[in-house]
Amino acid sequence: QVQLVESGGGLVQAGGSLRLSCAASGRTFSNYFMGWFRQAPGKEREFVVGIRRSGGSTLYADSVKGRFTISRDNAKDAVYLQMNSLKPEDTAVYYCAAGWASSRKSADYEYWGQGTQVTVSS
Fold it and tell me: Would you say the C-alpha torsion 9, 6, 103, 50 has a positive or negative sign?
C-alpha cells in the first residue's frame, strides 16, 4: 500500500502560480512512476503530467506544456507540481497517483490521493 496526500491547492488569479505537493508513505516511493491528474466539474479525470522513477523523464499533457513542471524528491518521498501562468480552465481537483509504468491512463495507476482543489479566477 502507498498512501498519498496532496497539498498546496487554493485560489489564485489568472496568470498566477501555485505549487502542489504530494507526500507518499508506505511502500518504496522510488519504485513508482508518479503522475498528476485533474478533474473539473462535469468532466472526466484527465492526465496532466507524469515522472519516471528516477525523475529523468517526464510526460506532459499538451495543455500544460511550458507552464507546469513536475519534479520528485525520492529522499523525501515527495512529488511536486509547479504551475505557472495559470488559466481559468486549469480549475479542477488535482490528484496525485502512483503506478508501475509510464502512462497517461488513469486505469494504469494503482494508488491515488484524495485530491486538492485548484481554482483560477479570471
Answer: positive
